[in-house]
Batch of 4 targets.
Target 1
Amino acid sequence: MLSKFSSLALASLVAASSSFVSFSDAQAAGCGRASWYALHSRTASGERMNPNLLTAAHRSLRFGTKLKVTNSNNGRSVVVRINDRGPFIRGRVLDLSKAAASNIGMIGAGHAKICYEVIG
């Protein structure tokens, strides 16, 4: 009986642990300001920055993480892939490629209030 109870308790503990939020998950969604950039240098992931791709820089999310980014001013969204580190300006949470910024209508302003969530 004890081993049966222990198995059941262990199974419920494992199921419950999947609902805990880790530190990295806490940063998996948020709102703030984003800017855009169109350099042709190497990114922190080692690939060459291509302003025509839908990519972004984030301070800590894993390279390859996909985010849905929504411009709070107009509701337009784009899906980007994290391939760089940044932004390095206080108060900004993402640096978007020029193509991503264009998709959500923030090229002219240079920055916008956005919300983002991890989708993959």
Target 2
Amino acid sequence: MRIDKLLWYLRLAKTRTLAQSLAEEGHIRLNSRRVDRAHQKVAPGDVLTLPLGPRVRVIELLVLPTRRGPAPEAQSCYRVLDEPSDFPLAAPNRSDAATEDLQP
């Protein structure tokens, strides 16, 4: 399956055109390799790294979807490898909160 079609089926891109541009602009990594074409083939077991909004997500494909179905169906096709944490590394005010804890 093409990577642009996969992103659209998994509801990680709103439109297939947006998925194509993400792939062609090199914003996605497939198994640690930069993707620069929308027709890059993907298979179950592949690991994708892609920007979603202000974050970068890492997912592993479990199965290839057969259609663009509802969100729960799409989410069952992949596993998120980087679960969101309460204290992301790039949090804007994290260093301020951490230094307050260290002060006597």
Target 3
Amino acid sequence: MVTRVSATPLALDWIERLARKHGPLMFHQSGGCCDGSAPMCYPQGEFMLGSSDVQLGEIGGMPFWMSESQFEYWQHTHLIIDAVPGRGAGFSIESPEGIRFLTRSRLYEPHEEAELVLLGAPAHG
């Protein structure tokens, strides 16, 4: 089954660690100038979603969101969330841990695009 977002084993490990420490989490794909296109991680409910945010799926059981306008650009791309050494954005919960989440991507194959059409548009916030 095709998904819009997935995570590497290392990212899943960090999601599990952070959830043990902070409780349920949520992700929002940043489109801002300061954080570039970093996936931001927050305790669930700490980031206010709007009606123009769409849920792409879940990683590690945690919801992953992005703005609808940004989704228009990324809709043909599968997002792969990874964790790498370094200091991420100051607002993202993993920042003090010495790692940061990073978005990698790949274009969908034609058969995956067809599956996505059947899935329909992602749910709004």
Target 4
Amino acid sequence: MADTDPDELERRIARTRAELAHTVDAIADRVNPKRVAERTVADVKSRAGHLVASVGDALGVTPKPVDYADDPDRVWDDERPDLGPVLIGIGAVLVVGAAIVLWRRRRRLR
């Protein structure tokens, strides 16, 4: 270290400080509540889009792109999805679930 001049040491210290400041700023930005909320909202939107697409595929309905500026009453003007089978399936699941709960309660009371 005896052959290292003070100007070089100062440049190294300045470079290290700049790198450290950049790292601290990146960490602060990553844990910023506003940024965390923005990332969470973007993730939820992405997952919801994938869910809607897979449900649409299962029902045989092709979702059409909707602009947020569109009139919400006109979204399904071209074709309305047939929700009958979906509602029947949900009702059947609820009835079976209620039957299981009642059956278990009766079994415990005996």
